[in-house]
Amino acid sequence: MRKQQRSFILKPADADKKWYVVDATDQVVGRFASEIAKVLKGKTNPKYTPNTDSGDYVIIINAEKVKFTGKKWDKKNYYWHTNHIGGIKQRTAREQLEKHPELILYNAIFGMLPKTSLGRKQLTKLKVFTGPSHNLEAQKPAELKF
After folding, report:
1. Which tens digits make up the pLDDT trace of 73-85?
2. Which domains does the chain have, with CATH numbers?
3. pLDDT digits 0-9 by tens, 21-34
4. What b/e string do you get for 120-146 counting C-beta neighbours within 10 Å, with b at 16 or more?
5. pTM for the model
């Protein structure tokens, strides 16, 4: 008789989480965001378990230097609501880059994570900064290249 193999389930306490810093200079937003989402989910780890938060922390610098392909700078819109009647607002990607460039990457990565409590927990491990510096040197982040 053949011996049955058991599935490996990673417990949250056993997850070894690392810190990575990524430079977003000249990266295309969608392709870059999908790679970051993989790291946040933990799909790059050999001990990946879908129902456990096994992903790593990611620090993104130079968020204002990302690129879009085609005419997305003028045609892509970002929407939000003020929670007042008739309070829907919108900005083009070019206007968003001037006002809040970190939200371009944040919203793209948010869209690629699960819409569950696990996805919200994974999103808290994302830190986006404009400019080349960040205030998380104490975590000793390793550089991550794509």
Report:
1. 999 999 999 999 9
2. 18-70+102-143 (3.90.1180.10)
3. 999 999 999 999 99
4. eebeebbbbbbeeebeeeeeebeebee
5. 0.91
